[in-house]
Amino acid sequence: MQTLELRHVGKSFGQLQVLKDINITIEKGEFAAIVGPSGCGKSTALRMFAGLESPSEGDVLADGMAIKGPSPERMFIFQEHALYPWSTVEQNVGLGLELAGVSKSERKERINAVLAKVNLAGFNNYYPAQLSGGMKQRAAIARALIMDPDVLLLDEPYGALDAMTRLTMQNELQTIWSGSGKTMLLITHDIDEALYLADKIFVMSARPGQVVETIRLDQARPRNRNDESFSANRQKIMSLLGL
Ligand SMILES: Nc1ncnc2c1ncn2[C@@H]1O[C@H](COP(=O)(O)OP(=O)(O)OP(=O)(O)O)[C@@H](O)[C@H]1O
Ligand SMILES: [Mg+2]
Hints:
Radius of gyration: 18 Å
Largest sheet: 6 strands, mixed
Number of domains: 2
CATH architecture of the largest domain: 3-Layer(aba) Sandwich
Oligomer: single chain
Strand order of the largest sheet: 6-7-8-3-9-10
Helix content: 25-40%
CATH class of the largest domain: Alpha Beta
Bound molecules: adenosine-5'-triphosphate, magnesium ion
Strand content: 15-25%
Number of strands: 10
């Protein structure tokens, strides 16, 4: 569930206008991506969908209703994994369920299921410092997924990872999404990552951020990064970004 929408959204922080008349619609179950220059307001837009920031103008909607605050239906994954360093993988991943009053035995079951889903089975008792960068990010995704949200909001989740790990993680994310019915919104600096994963890419201009183009991708998955339409779209986005 959950169609996401920004309707004529503007945002200013004091004198600084960050977003200007943004219109975005993400249908339920769709995989959308945002690319744009640093500082153009991508994280700000994502934080609005998460209910962590309110617009100065316009409407931020989920299924046509104003988003007024955070909700477990829309989980947010930060660039920095933000795991608690003093808690194990299992404790980090299970925290949301614990706060929701879910029993220990059910928690255990759901933790194991979600860890298997993100390829972290058996790492229950590891601390974040004992994990690789990719594994930390998998744990952060597990912590969001365990709440079974309708929407996953991902703010450059793989930005800090090496190129090879990124490719693996992109495939894992695709597997998590496909057939799940979940709505995904991914912010990335990596144009190929957006082209590989998304149904729709919003290309933003420099601040004040505006959507300069929406690119729709309907190639079957998994996609081939070397095929013609992939390259053509890569070229198109690069020229829109002035690269
Ligand atoms: N809480 C805040 N108070 C004041 N200014 C803010 C706040 N949050 C963001 N900004 C400003 O808004 C602008 C856009 O920030 P934002 O983090 O949304 O950009 P971004 O597109 O995500 O950039 P990056 O690609 O570097 O992550 C920046 O100039 C930033 O300084
Ligand atoms: Mg950002």
